[in-house]
Amino acid sequence: MRAMTIGRPTLTTRVESWECDFNDHWNARFYARSFQQAAERVATLDGRDNPGLGLLGARTIRFHRELLAGTGVEVRSARVSGGEYGGAVLHLLGDARGLAATALDLPGTGGAALPRASAREARLAFPRAGAPADAEENWAGARIAETGPVRPAELDHTGAPLLEEILRRVALGLHALLDGLGFTRDFTAEHGIGRMAVETRIRPLAAGPLRPGALLRVRSRLARTGPRSFATRHRLETDTGAALARVGHTLVAVDLATRRAVAPPGFLPRPEAGEAALR
């Protein structure tokens, strides 16, 4: 079965030029926004009120293809039937050419109203490095990025931070972390090597509404450097240390001429700890 025929439509949108990054591709946070908007539609299919970010325990996003400005986008959603992720909600995001990204939501809020997808049909969305765990990580020595105050437009109707705003701020922390390690724009310009996320895992942690004007920061660290990819971990928190979200990225280095993955730069450290699940 073709991926973009699975489930039912839950969002129609398009790629706007001002939503594209410095590589001229749709920024990852707008994939995340689309998945969240589709999830909120799923959560209300039975007539219940929209819970906003509160519907989400954990989400794994996998990026399969880049999208460019002007592309029409559809999200389709289904409930996974059977297997390790039975009951999770599967989202498939694509265009006329086919699948571009997937998301897997736990605990699967509203999924009972969706068509079913087999574990085989959903396998492209399954985490490659294990599902998010509950234990906290050690953030000692993490790089801290001060990301500024919260504005009212950055909150959803429940007072929780918009999911795309979580990822925007985490992206600032990621950029600062990699700049500090030498993976800079100057390095990219000189060597033609950029980077791209292939998997993002998100666990919202906020227990209540966020106050406009609150100051937020991101703690970031390099978790793993391997022969084909590298992983980072991030914690979004208030300036008093209250955790709002934990995010993990798995990234690849990309030859910008061929658009193919290459080995990560040799100057990236190789932490002693192996790849750990997002916690």
From TrEMBL:
Annotated Gene3D superfamilies: Hotdog Thioesterase (3.10.129.10)
Record organism: Amaricoccus solimangrovi
Descriptive protein name: Thioesterase
Highest taxon of source: Bacteria
